[in-house]
Design a protein that fits this description.
single chain; 161 residues; mainly alpha; two-stranded antiparallel ribbon
């Protein structure tokens, strides 16, 4: 009986004492940078070749907040492709995943139809760099996909006034 009471007390102490078993660092992680009321990551400048390939996207999204939000979406999608090792095996998987993610991002927002021509230009850039044929992703093809999505993000972000 005494052992059970001791164990119960010990369990209570452990459950109510955060950090007792796994102490926290004394320095908390810094919060992500806040820009325009949103958390954003920096988007690296692409190569001159990719800037040229995505230049038609610059300025199509004229509102700076819309441009920043949209650019972040493309940068995040590039990051997903870059980090993945198990799911995205073909260019078709990238296209299908992107179309679904884009639809989810845009549904029930004021961005739908707000910037005529943007979708067609973006689709042409992706078609040119990813192709329409479903092919296996080599390390080089994956890197090219990551780079084009990042270049699209950069061009959108840097094209707004």
């Amino acid at each position: 009986m005494m052992l059970r009471n001791t164990m119960s007390l010990l369990l209570l102490v452990v459950l109510t004492c955060p950090g007792c078993l796994f102490p926290r660092n004394s320095e908390p992680d810094p919060p992500p940078a806040l820009h325009d009321g949103h958390y954003r990551t920096e988007i690296a400048e692409p190569t001159a070749e990719l800037k040229e390939a995505t230049k038609a996207l610059r300025g199509l999204i004229s509102d700076p907040v819309d441009a920043a939000d949209t650019a972040q979406f493309y940068a995040d999608f590039a990051d997903v492709i870059d980090r993945d090792t198990d799911i995205i095996k073909t260019t078709g998987t990238i296209r299908e995943g992107f179309m679904r993610a884009e639809k989810l991002m845009l549904q029930r927002t004021e961005l739908v139809g707000k910037y005529p021509g943007f979708g067609a230009v973006k689709d042409a850039v992706l078609e040119e760099h990813l192709g329409l044929e479903d092919v296996q992703l080599s390390a080089e093809k994956r890197a090219a996909a990551v780079n084009i999505f990042r270049a699209i993000a950069w061009s959108i972000k840097n094209g707004a006034p």
